[in-house]
Amino acid sequence: MIFGSDFVNKGIPVVIIFTLAQFINSITGGVGFTLIMTGKQKIEFYNSIGLFFVNFTLNLILIPSLGCMGAAIATATSVIFSNILRLMQVYIFYKMQPYGINYLKTIVPAIMATVLLLLTQKVNLLPIGQLMLNVFIVLGIFLIYTRFTGVDEDEQYIWNLIKQKFAFRLGA
């Protein structure tokens, strides 16, 4: 709402599409870097060229009819496609994939939080009230889910590092 109703009506869907693309980009891990660091720089170079041409072509097709939404769809499609391609390449070359059962500890509560956030968007609150409600929902769902699923060794290690850092700063 800070940017006005025009942004809310036209900009938010664009931001959501870019967010989805970035989400896919982040969950595929560093597959592009994996290719580079393992001697497959040329393949990653060709991946990047392909990403450019797919993005450029989709933008030429979609922007005239859809405007900024077309640009968002084109870019998101290109990013998602290229990251899935890189993920498949890493699996083909090295029989590696970055996913395990512990991914469910993030995906399940994220889906639950998303559904609840979408359901609560119709509540008429001041922007700060909506922000506080959203934070409460997300933190609550993740804390409750973690309570039921437990904390694994890596999470406990990170939690202990955080506690040590704050204890040091507080002089404890």
In short:
One of its GO terms (cellular component) is plasma membrane. 82% of the residues lie in helices and 0% in strands.
Polypeptide structure, described:
By secondary structure, the chain is mostly helical. 82% of the residues lie in helices and 0% in strands. Helix 1 runs parallel beside helix 4. Keywords: Cell membrane, Membrane, Transmembrane, Transmembrane helix. It comes from Desulforhabdus amnigena. It is found in: Cell membrane.
Shape: flat
Radius of gyration, whole Å: 21 Å
* Overall number of domains: 2
Give me the number of helical elements.
Answer: 7
Strand and helix map with partners:
Blueprint: H1 5-27, H2 31-37, H3 41-66, H4 68-94, H5 104-120, H6 127-149, H7 153-170
Helix pairs in contact: 1-4, 2-3, 2-4, 3-4, 5-6
Tags for this entry?
172 residues, mainly alpha, 7 helices
